[in-house]
Amino acid sequence: MTHVVTEACIRCKYTDCVDVCPVDCFREGPNFLTIDPDECIDCAVCIPECPVNAILPEEDVPGDQQHFIKLNAELALGWPSITKRKPALPDADEWKDRKNKLGELKR
After folding, report:
1. Residue 87 lies in a domain
2. Which range of residues forms the domain containing residue 71?
3. Is residue 1 predicted with pLDDT exceeding 80?
């Protein structure tokens, strides 16, 4: 199993999770983070660090978010590794509680 970044991260991209990851499995896109399933060791230390609760164990991803399992794997192939915390996106607080943000995802 691995962990999955879900829709809540889109247009927020808080990077608190990156600092605690012992294996550097996070990848960074323009407005979303993803977890490389081949690198994740399922340690779960990232979960409590996410201020928007965007990270879930794969087996706990809700039905309406299941497509994020495949999306994380796909995007992780082309996005660079991120290993240090960065500031969240400038309008992250405006987006953190919004739903149905998939259309906002920049690849």
Report:
1. no
2. 3-80
3. no
